[in-house]
């Protein structure tokens, strides 16, 4: 992976020892890679164990139109979000 941008980061407390986290990640791969860009929605369930947060479950869902996006470094997360809304 050559670059990535994380945005839309949200945390929902499920209790004092549990949280649901979700965000979007746009990844840019080197120019020789078969796939140049990949965008995924990620959700995680984390729990506090022995004073440390531990991820108990994670899921990635690819977004099919991600390959059309330009590099995140060129347009920034705000522009990517605007593109997502307009599609």
Walk me through what this model shows:
- The protein has one helix spanning 72-86; strands at residues 3-15, 18-28, 37-49, 52-62.
- It contains one helix and four strands.
- The protein is 17% helix and 55% strand.
- A hairpin with a 2-residue loop joins strand 3 (37-49) and strand 4 (52-62).
- Residues 80-87 have low confidence and may be disordered.
- It has one domain (3-86): Nuclear Transport Factor 2, Chain: A (Roll), CATH 3.10.450.50.
- The protein has 87 residues and is α+β, with helices and mostly antiparallel strands.
Per-chain topology:
Layout lengths: L2 E13 L2 E11 L8 E13 L2 E11 L9 H15 L1
Antiparallel strand pairs: 1-2, 2-3, 3-4
Task: Summarize the entry for a quick read.
By secondary structure, the chain is α+β, with helices and mostly antiparallel strands. The chain contains 1 helix and 4 strands. 17% of the residues lie in helices and 55% in strands.
CATH level 3 topology: Nuclear Transport Factor 2, Chain: A
Biggest sheet architecture? 4 strands, antiparallel
Helix content: 10-25%
Write the element-wise H/E pattern from the N-terminal end onward. Answer: EEEEH
The CATH class turns out to be: Alpha Beta
Mean of all residue-level pLDDT scores: 78
Strand order of the largest sheet: 1-2-3-4
> How much of the polypeptide forms β-strand, as a percent range?
over 45%
What would the principal axes of the Cα set say about the shape?
elongated
Using the CA coordinates, give the radius of gyration: 15 Å
Q: Tell me the domain tally.
A: 1
Task: Provide the structure class.
Answer: alpha+beta
> What is the terminal-to-terminal distance?
25 Å
């Amino acid at each position: 992976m050559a670059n990535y941008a994380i945005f839309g980061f949200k945390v929902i407390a499920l209790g004092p020892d549990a949280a649901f986290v979700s965000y979007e990640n746009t990844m840019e791969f080197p120019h020789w890679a078969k796939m140049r860009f990949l965008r995924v929605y990620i959700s995680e369930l984390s729990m506090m164990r022995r004073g440390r947060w531990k991820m108990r479950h994670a899921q990635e869902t690819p977004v099919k139109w991600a390959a059309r996006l330009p590099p995140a470094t060129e347009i920034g997360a705000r522009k990517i979000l605007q593109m997502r809304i307009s599609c």
